[in-house]
Amino acid sequence: MELLSAELSAETLAALQAHLATAKLNEESEVSEDFRLSQFWYDSRTGDALAAEAFEQSKGGPIAFVSTPAAFKALKALHPDRKDVYLFEYDHRFEEKYPTEFVFYDYNTPLALDSKFQHFFDYVLVDPPYLNINCMSKFAQTMRFLSKDVSARGQIQTPNAFITGAMHRLPKTLTLWMDGL
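The line above is the sequence of N(6)-adenine-specific DNA methyltransferase 2; the predicted structure tokens follow.
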């Protein structure tokens, strides 16, 4: 910057410094909700509680956060050096912030994932963006794929959580179907 200060006018140098400061702030800023992607994130208390449960239940094993960026961010804040923690997410903004932990995930193609993740995770946390049978059944397929311990009948034995704020409003048939996961 010293070299530039000799070459640029004070006004131009001030504009450049302001631009660099803004760029640094943008780079360090958090990714925010995008309602167009049906993103409604947890408050910090809920995110922290889900992160703490994932940490405890995984017993040091790999954790998958599927469409749960707030809980993932909370875990990374609580345990920044924790390895084998992945965010499966549609929103590519997270790829920029977490390039080694981001895995692109589109629930419309629930099994289009790298085979290295098949039956890999000791804990899986999912939060489907929509409360309909199509979306939730595709998330269930993803949970079966990711979960380490799946029985011969296809039921998940790995500790996991299928989160939604409106579980109590689900039709009885969907609730019974989910019990069979």
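Note on the example: The chain has one domain: 43-179. Helices lie at 2-7, 10-28, 44-58, 69-78, 93-97, 133-146, 172-179.
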